[in-house]
Structures are given as structure tokens and as C-alpha cells.
Amino acid sequence: MDIVSLLIVLIKILVMMFGVLVLGAAMAVFAERRVSAFIQERVGPNRVGPQGIIQPFADVVKLVMKEDIVPRQANRFIHDLAPIISISVALSTFAIIPFGNTIVLFGREIKLMIADVDIGILYLLALTSIGVYGVSLAGWSSNNKYSLLGGLRSSAQLISYELSMGLSLLGVLMLSGTMRLDQIVLQQTDYWWGIIPKWNIFLQPLGFITFLIASFAETNRLPFDLPEAEPELVGGYHTEYTGMKFGLFFLAEYANVITSSAVTITLFFGGWHLPWVEQLSVSPFLLSILQMCTFLGKVILLVLFFIIVRWTIPRFRYDQLMHIGWKVMLPMAIANFLITGIVMLVWA
Amino acid sequence: MSSPGKIIRKKDLTLLQKTFIPEILKGLRMTVRQMFRPTFTQQFPEERFKPDPSFRGRPVLVAENGVERCVACGLCARVCPALAIEVQASETELVKERYPIKFEINMVRCIFCGFCEEVCPEEAIVMSQEYLLAFTSQKEALFGKERLLKSTEELKNRLEFLRNHR
Lengths: 348, 166
Fold this sequence. Notes:
The complex is a heterodimer.
Chain A: H1 3-39, H2 55-65, H3 76-92, E1 102-105, E2 108-111, H4 120-141, H5 145-176, H6 181-187, E3 191-192, E4 196-197, H7 200-203, H8 205-218, H9 230-233, H10 243-268, H11 284-310, H12 318-347
Antiparallel strand pairs in A: 1-2, 3-4
Chain B: H1 15-18, H2 21-35, E1 59-64, E2 67-68, H3 75-79, E3 85-91, E4 98-106, H4 115-119, E5 125-127, E6 142-143, H5 145-148, E7 149-151, H6 156-165
Parallel strand pairs in B: 1-7
Antiparallel strand pairs in B: 1-2, 1-5, 3-4, 4-6
């Protein structure tokens, strides 16, 4: 690997880190606050900057300046480590998402994804499983019963939903025959009868629904946010966290939302594919830019969907959560994977 | 652990309702519709609340042609439940013969009940429509005569309201 390509990878990492964490997660927090305000007929934060757009950065400055309190009996090292695990897992998942096809800059063809790995989807599932450690270690090391309960709940919840998440992806894997996410996206750029884009959502509606529900559970978003259920557990696993350590958990949640939106789009909505743009005969450079914008637009739409769902559906009870996870989602995922197998066998 | 509560399962749901999805979509439609409804929030420092004449703001002394109507009878000080008013009477050459040489309302104590206005025989103390009262010290909250006096033109709405409704 020569120095230039190393530099390109570094630039991609920096841009994505900055884009996803600083801008993406911060803007998602802002969007959450504004959208929830609109839903509840309020105005929301609109003072800092035009329409309050700098509010999340003001919040970060506030959090950084706060005192960092560690409970007396807490395990200091693990207490510090937990938010780091959470945020680094949330960010590194983004490494395998193709946010565009290829772009030609200064005569060099650059692939628009950070890590071009063969095991794409497996990497994703493995990393999301590590994400549990952040939450459950935070719960355990705080030496607080509410934190511990939150951490335990999250590990139970994530393990149950991990299964149906992995199984719901099997359908997509079987159809595409590859784990490389860029290949999966490329296969979705085709058309049926030249009109309908060959997105996986049309082939795998059941798999899509199971995956979406599982990703809500994986990101600890509202219908499944039992690890931090405020009315029962104070703040759940981050009860004992203050300052920017709390802020890291907070940002990790939104980075996770963005990442799982991006994954959903890559697997089911054709990734960066903008339908019918091939007929327009635009220049390749402009096409790459357009594709990146398409990807961004799709991610924003799905993040908005995540936010609106949060303010629509009440939290599940814990037994309902387990009931849905094991008795509904798992059979659904298995049924989806069986049906896909049978259909493929009959068709081919 | 306490015993778990009885779980209620509704038996009469249709299959479509049991899948949650159409019901969730209904809920989503509701929240999205709610998003585009107008808000009633007032953007405070820029937009100010304009009170009706019936509003009880801070009590003020009515000044007719630059002279207060007050004859320093002390009824307002007597009736004030929060003991916020202090009046000291003195004599004057005017027709009314008495006037308050000192009239002080402690705005930290005032509870805006309007009893002073109700009891006043001369219609000399009324509740104005001012409500922005923020102080940085106790001393600043002592309103003397110079800050209490307001001309009849400024208080026209309130005086008219009192005449019509009392």
C-alpha cells in the first residue's frame, strides 16, 4: 500500500468520523429535540444559532465543562472504559458502509467506503454484539442497583434480538450470495422490466420488517428502550455518569441510530442507488456526488422515521419484549429464511 | 421480588391488529399530522403578552394632572394581606387637604390580590397591566412614589374596566 492510498484511507476515516459523530449524531440529537417538539405542539430549542441549529454543540460544551463524578465504590477503570467501548463500536460499524460507488479524483479511482472487507455483514453483527459490553459494563461498574438492572436488561435484550437480526439478514445473504456490502448494493442497482429498482425490500419484505424491529431493539430506541427506562430505572445504565462520559453514551446512541439506518438502507433500499438516474447520462463525477447525496438523503429519512416512532409508541413491558423477541421475531425470521430458500430452489 | 401483576391479554383482537403493524402506522399518521399543527408558544423577549384590562399587574398610584389622587387614608395599607404597603400622611394646600408624603409598596411582598384597589375610596390605587418585575436586590423591589405614579391616560383601560364592572 503506497502512501497516497494510505492518506486517502485516513482522509475517509476523518471525514466519516467527523461526519457521523460531530455532525451526524449532533444533528440527530437536534432533530430529535425539534421533531419531538413539533409533535407535541411545542417549539423546541431555537435560540442558539439560526433555528437553534448550534444547540447540540452548546450542549457538548456544557457537558465537557461539567464535573466528572465517579461513585465511591465504583470500579474506576471499567467505569471509564464503558463509554469508550460504546462510542468506538458505534463509530467503527460505519467503516464498512458503502456511501457511494466509486469516485475518480485526480486520475485515481477511489472506492467510497472505508474498509473494503470480505466478511461485511459478519463484521457488522460482531461489532454490534461487542456494543453490549459498553452498556452492561457501565451498569455493572457503577455500583448502583438501577444501573446494574439497566445493564442486565440490555444484555438480555440485545442477545435475544441479535438472533433474529442475524437470521433476518440470511434472506438477503442467500439472494445476493455475498457478504460484501458493496456487491450487495451493486446487485440492487438493476431493474425489473426497466422500471422498478431491484431493491431487496421488494424481495424480502418480511426480512425487512424483522430487521427493522431488531435494529430498534439493538439501538435501544423507544419501543425497546428498557435499559434506560426512566420511570423504573432512573436513568438505567448511565445513571451514575456525568459530564462528557454521559455525553459519549448519548452520542453513541445517536451514532448507532445513524449506523443502523445506513445498514438498513444498504441492505434493503439499494444503498447509494438513485433510481432511473442512469438514463439521464450525467458525467461520472456528478453521478458519484449525486449517489452520495442520495445515500445521505435516505439516511436522513430513516433517522427521521426512528425519531417519529420514538414519539409515537409507548415502551414495551419487559415480558412483552421477551415474548416478541423469542416467540414472534425468531419464528418470523426463520420463516422468512425458509421461504426464501424454497422459492430460490423452485425458481432456479 | 414482588409477585408479578396479572397480565391482561385481549382475546378479541383481529389477526391484523395482533401484528401491530397497521396499528403502529395509524399512530405514526397521528404524530406526523400533529407535527404540522401550529404551536401556541410566544417567543417571549420578542413577542410580549398583551394583557386584558381585567389583568392584575403591579399596583400603581393614579396621577391626575400630575398630582396623585391618594388622600393617604391608609385603607390600602390596612387591607393588604401581605403588609406590602406603607403610607405616611401629610397636609397640603390642595382641596383634598391630605396627601401621602411617603407611599411605598414592597414588590417582593405584594401578592397581586387587588384588595388595595378594591378598598380605595378615591380610585387612587389600581392594578396596572405591567407584569415584568424582576429584581436583583431587595432594595430595588421597594417602589416609592416616583415609580408608582402613573397618569390617568396610561391607565385608561383599567379605570374604564373598573367603572363598568364594579
